[in-house]
Amino acid sequence: MPKPEYIYVVYIQAPCEKVWDALIDPEMNKEYWGRQCNLSDWKVGSRWLHANYDDRSEVMVQGHVLESDRPHRLVLSWARPEQADNPDKVSRVTFTVEEQFGACKLTVIHGDLDAEMLKAISGGWPPILSSLKTLIETGEAMPMTRRNWKRSA
After folding, report:
1. Per residue in 94-116, pLDDT tens?
2. Is the separation of the CB atoms in 32 and 19 below 8 Å?
3. Which pLDDT score, from 0 to 100, does residue 34 have?
4. Could you give the C-alpha distances from 124 to 46, 85, 119, 149, in angstroms and in order?
5. Beta partners for residue 111, in sequence order
6. Is the distance from CB of 114 to CB of 86 less than 8 angstroms?
7. Residue by residue, what is the 3-state secondary structure of the chain?
């Protein structure tokens, strides 16, 4: 039986480059992602970390950059650090960024999920991506995502 996947699509009134930057820039991440940030050089094969912005030794998720085609496609492996060596616990996130109807369409597909990670990300992606949209369009993220989240996928 195939593992489940989670799909989220949002339209953002901004250039695709700005949406791409919001996905990889720690200064922007912290505003819409619970004071967490994404860290990498974003080259294929490189390691990436999703960490507490204020204490980067606190890593919540880690993985590798599987594809990186700025500003259109970013694919990451995704696992909690304590589960990263277990292939059954490693999922995959694909961000597709494309111009459509004069706006930017961001599609996030989080696949190869086990039940635990599906539950965690189902409560995480909607507020994170809603706040990313709000940040880009208004210059200010939603208050609920600007505070530190203790544990998120």
Report:
1. 999 999 999 999 999 999 999 99
2. no
3. 93
4. 24, 23, 9, 10
5. 92
6. no
7. CCCCCEEEEEEECCCHHHHHHHHHCHHHHHHHCCCEEEECCCCCCCEEEEEECCCCCCEEEEEEEEEEECCCEEEEEEECHHHCCCHHHCEEEEEEEEEECCEEEEEEEEECCCHHHHHHHHHHHHHHHHHHHHHHHHCCCCHHHHCCCCCCC
Give the CA-trace dihedral at 106, 112, 115, 117, to 10 degrees: -50
pLDDT of 49 reads: 98
2's tokens: 């195939």
Instruction: Tell me if 12 sits within 8 A of 28, measured CB to CB.
Output: no
Tokens of 122: 């189902």
